[in-house]
Amino acid sequence: MKIKENELDKIVNQVISSLNNKQNSNDFNTKINYGIFSTMDEAIAEAVKAQACLQLNYSTEAREKIIKSIRKNVSKHVEKISEMAVEETDMGRIEDKIIKNNLAINKTPGTEDLRTEAFSGKKGLTIVEEAPFGVICSIAPVTNPTETIISNAISMIASCNGVVFNSHPGAKKVSKYIIEVLNKVIMEAGGPENLLTAVNEPTLQTVESCMRDDRIAMIVATGGPGVVNAALSSGKKAIGAGAGNPPVLVDDTVDLKRVAKDIINGASFDNNLPCTSEKAIVALESIADSLLNEMTNQNAQLVHDIKALERVILNDDGSINKALVGKDAAFILNKAGLKAKSEDLRLVIVDVDLRHPFVQKEQLMPVIPLVRAKNFNEAMEMGVDIEEGNRHTAIIHSKNVDNLTKFAKKIETTIYVKNAPSYAGIGAGGEGYATFTIAGPTGEGLTSARSFTRKRRCVLVDGFSII
Ligand code: NAD
Which UniProt keywords apply (predicted)? Predict the structure, then answer.
């Protein structure tokens, strides 16, 4: 029996539609792993296979098509992953995680970030291209679990790499979910299976074995000092995106009402989980009380019983109590036996001196210390002391161009935000692209596709130069 062409089309469409429906059901097909494996060995082997396929068969345009599809289709999961992340990690704010995830999806650069350099002259033409490393071991923090995975996935696919993700054990469910969604979207866009992989049960041992594996060409560690040091001592090419403790300087040339709003918005964004968020205010003595006034007139509360806060925020050894990281301001006050002025309080302020542990330690919670400086020079010195050479982020509010410039030169941070909340530095309300892997220690800065490439030179002598 002969099948007519239009009948054949109908049958093909029905098969495709039934396959799509199956994949859309959220009930992931057991035969397809969508990137999740029970052992690290399998996770690496599958990513190696997928990356080889990507490098051999997919042009830059084909990779861009996959990225476009990620931007379009992963957006549909943003609310769900933001809710899942808050529920699983018990940290942060859903509405802010939605903003962060959208930022990762829409503002992480794609293949347009890659550049070819050319040298031409009498001797011919030489080009330098940005080539993939191969398979990258990417380690993500609990504070931005899905944002880091999405942003790294876009950058690393743009640069033609495969990725083995190592999520924080405290965010394993939501991380697994987003890796499955990403793989599904990649495959629907015609990309290879298992381009992004992970193990079902991430632990410190699985990260270590991933970092050590010979098939891993590069390590990208986003997290605190422990993981960054482990990556840097691995003997492999490593990008370290480590901790920060961003100071925010305020001088006497600014509209304090606007500054109060910016600091509250930046320091309480996702309950201060971003490594870029304002962690300590350094205010000139002449305006410190007025600034506190403006902040407490808005949604911040000045707490005088500092001992009560110390008892719950600091452990006996002086370290930060992780159980309060990313919690709401009212919850923290309640734990300390203090009363919040409202349940939706955004920020707690304490007036302390420079050496106080709340100033010196990265707290990652909506409790911000304020220290007073006699003059701008002292404010700058305090800012440098607080930042501790992390080379991460600093913020300043000033209309004095000399002050803006002097502090920028002195603090030497990767991100320097002027007259805006800290998140302007990662593209939220400021110009420039977004990333959730800010590599201060190793110097790549705000990472993008080209950070995950190695340069290869191709030389043709006596040809192709047209001048
Ligand atoms: P963390 O260092 O505890 O964990 C980060 C990741 O590293 C996790 O996946 C964890 O399982 C793994 N890990 C931890 N110690 C390790 C070790 N010794 N060997 C191998 N893997 C290890 O950090 P966190 O609490 O998840 O995240 C918060 C920290 O990350 C803060 O210090 C914050 O400033 C920093 N951070 C930095 C950036 C950046 O771009 N620079 C972005 C987000 C978070």
Answer: NAD, Oxidoreductase
